Amino acid sequence: MQDVELSDSELVRKTLRAIMQDGDAPAAAKAQAARTLAEMTQMLGRNQREPQDLTTPVKEMSRSQMEDALAAIVAARSGA
Predict the structure, then answer these.
(1) Residue 64 — pLDDT band, cuts 50, 70, 90?
(2) Burial code of 6-38, b = ≥16 C-beta within 10 A, e = fewer?
(3) Residue/partner pairs of 3-10 with CB below 8 Å, 24 or more apart
(4) Closest to 19 measured CA to CA, from 10, 7, 32, 8
(5) Which of 11, 28, 76, 78 could bridge 6 with an S-S bond, Cβ 3.0-4.6 Å?
(6) Cα separation of 72 and 43, whole Å?
(7) According to the model, what pLDDT value does residue 53 have?
(8) Would you place residue 73 in the very low, low, confident or very high pLDDT band (cuts 50, 70, 90)?
(9) What confidence tens digit (pLDDT) does each residue in 16-60 have?
(10) Beta strands in 1-80 (DSSP E)
(11) Could you give the CA distance from residue 47 to residue 6 in angstroms, rounded to a whole number?
């Protein structure tokens, strides 16, 4: 057992990433894992978020826009 337990969603994401990176996994399994992860992170599918305009200068952004932009950066860096 790990010292720090993963939440269900963290475990699912970790498992999907492992499938995508497994050299022996079939291409179809890798593609499905990638699609599922994209849907979970709202990058794809019916719950897809609207693309963000990252060209707006920070000084012109509302707090909500800044929080959304930061969340997008964090998600991109974590592979979410």
Answers:
(1) confident
(2) eeeeeeebeebeebbeeeeeeeeebeebeebbe
(3) 9/40
(4) 32
(5) 11
(6) 10
(7) 60
(8) confident
(9) 999 999 999 999 999 999 989 888 887 777 777 776 666 778 788
(10) none
(11) 25
Q: Are 20 and 30 in contact (CB under 8 A)?
A: yes
pTM for the model: 0.54
Structure tokens of 34?
């990638």
State the Cα–Cα distance between residues 18 and 33, nearest whole angstrom: 9
Q: Are 76 and 52 in contact (CB under 8 A)?
A: no
Q: Which pLDDT does position 4 carry in this prediction? A: 65
Exposed, middle or buried: residue 61 (CB in 10 Å: 0-12, 13-18, 19+)? middle
The answer to whether residues 76 and 54 touch, using CB atoms and an 8 Å cutoff, is: no
